[in-house]
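Re: that chain you flagged

S.,

Sorry for the slow reply, it's been a week of failed gels. I finally had a moment to sit down with the sequence you sent. For the record, here it is as I used it:
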Amino acid sequence: MKIKVLGILFMLSTTLGSCFKEVECGYRDQQYVASTSEIAYMQSFFTSNNITDLTQHSSGVFYKITSVGTGANPDLCSAMLVNYSAYRFGYGNAFDSYLDDAGISFTLGTLITGVQKVMPLVKAGGSIVMYIPPSLAYGNNEQRDQLGNIILPANSYIKFEMSLKAVQ
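Prediction finished late last night. Pasting the structure tokens below so you have them in one place:
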């Protein structure tokens, strides 16, 4: 009798437990890695522009955490509130930015691969500077503004300055 009761309880808990399994968000870690020529170009750019104290991620993204933060780390399924500025290597003006007290919300898995790779290293309240090669950014796709003007040519190397306000 005890065996039947335990068996029924086990089946019931397994059945009910399967109803409450966490649903995956559908974003997968991209296994892209920058080419050796992209990495060499970035290293040359850093040397020429006296940019130091960077860490190279295994994907080929270079970064510097400027503030670690104390909150949660995002994952691919996380909605994040961020402020950011994006620059093309060698150009002073940002081609895109969002700087506001409230921040703007993005799901990490929807952003370019380079950001997906290193943003989980920062906790909420922290900030990071990322140097991303074309293969982990927009590749051979031009980026245009709402009027159709090219704001970022194809195969551009980009720098992101990003502050992680919150992980939701």
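What I noticed first: The beta strands are 55-56, 62-67, 79-88, 94-98, 104-107, 127-132, 143-144, 150-152, 158-167.

Talk soon,
D.
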